[in-house]
Amino acid sequence: MENKMTFEESIAQLEAIVTQLERGDVPLEEALDAFQKGMVLSKQCQDTLTKAEKTLTKMMSEDEEVPFAGEEEA
């Protein structure tokens, strides 16, 4: 079973794929595989961002102040 990457790890891997493809020195088969993997990573990142946005919107619409993790109370 594959370990699920964090959002930051997914973004870093996606950036590495983009850099590799932009160089243009990758054989076609590898480029297609990298592009496909990049599309999957892109969707996963977008899904994570959409979920986070929905969670924050819900928290803000509940008319309650909810401190973010790590935020110290004044």
Automatic annotation (TrEMBL):
Catalytic activity: Exonucleolytic cleavage in either 5'- to 3'- or 3'- to 5'-direction to yield nucleoside 5'-phosphates
A GO CC annotation given for this chain: exodeoxyribonuclease VII complex
InterPro entries: Exonuc_VII_S, Exonuc_VII_ssu_sf
Principal EC category: hydrolase
A Pfam family assignment: Exonuc_VII_S
One GO BP: DNA catabolic process
Primary residence: cytoplasm
EC number: 3.1.11.6
Keyword Translocase part of the UniProt annotation: no
Keywords: Cytoplasm, Exonuclease, Hydrolase, Nuclease
Molecular functions (GO terms): exodeoxyribonuclease VII activity
Family that this chain belongs to: Belongs to the XseB family.
Function summary: Bidirectionally degrades single-stranded DNA into large acid-insoluble oligonucleotides, which are then degraded further into small acid-soluble oligonucleotides.
UniProt name for this protein: Exodeoxyribonuclease 7 small subunit
Lineage: Bacteria, Bacillati, Bacillota, Bacilli, Lactobacillales
